[in-house]
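Attaching the record inline, Q. Sequence:
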Amino acid sequence: MQEPDLAKNSVLQKTISDLGETLETVKGYDFNQGINYSEILSNFDKMGFQASNFSKAVYEINEMLADRYEALDEDELDVYEDDEFIKRKHKCTIFIGYTSNIVSSGLRENIRFLVQNKLVDCIVCTAGAIEEDFIKCMAPTYIGSFELDGKQLRDKGINRIGNLLVPNDNYCLFENWIMPLLDEMLKEQKDNGTIWTPSKVIQRLGERIDNEESICYWAAKNKIPIFCPALTDGSLGDMMYFHSFRNPGLILDILNDLQRINKMAMKAIKSGVLSIGAGVSKHHLMKANCIRDGADYTVFLNTAVEYDGSDSGANPDESIAAGKIKPDAHPVKIFGEASIILPLLIAETFAKFHFSKTIK
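Structure, as predicted:
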């Protein structure tokens, strides 16, 4: 009996395209070669799935770094800008955005490396990313478990961030440290007419923390602005709320910060974005790049999906439609959890670039 033609033609349809002429062959790392982490990561481009997106992100970041360190032409020098924090310093201005949980985790040290070594130009983050940076200078965060009972933790005065544990006493230490600084800022506002913005508050706190483990310390020292449009949405907001009763009158000008970040974006010869996590930090830095008709290089790293219409889950193509990424750009989104992906991504890009430059 002969097999049915319909079934045979459907199952054994002929391929009419030679994929091998234009596409990579899928091939994993062969551990018979021994353990070589650099080779393992280099092989990700042939691995498939999110490993391939990781490799594309490595290429995208290395492209922005290559542009960044081309010498500025004489007519590109930002000689008329008095604000050292937003002054154009490189051919490619690199914006990095991240959420509070990034700093709660051990990724804080990864971000600090970038800021300490002047590998980024502008930071956008949430309030928790600011306060957690300072709180860790005063007391540690601990590894716990995702399954701990919330009521028992509350009764013991312990906060849980995923599987991280933060004693509530840490926030009391933060209150003791920050209240005199808020008094100082209010006095300057009254005596000198100082206009405080979220970024200038963060700068002052970074100048006062005197701790080289802090991201904000290095940002203030290296004149890298940290923009936080939702500065009151966290423990820092709680402290400002309490301060408004004890010593009322402190005012923050959010619009001034909006002008500063938009000015940075508009002046950028080329613009590169690395967004870790999503929410307000992702949208705010992408909105700034919309002002300049889109970023040239973009990497998103998050776990959000687009099916609910959220900006958090929006894929890069949606950002192109909104004018936040240039139409001819090659943006990349890695669907992945940052505590695993980001250290590897930095190792293959910023860190390699920094140490090769240092050795030379």
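The chain has a mean pLDDT of 96. The radius of gyration is 24 Å.

More tomorrow.
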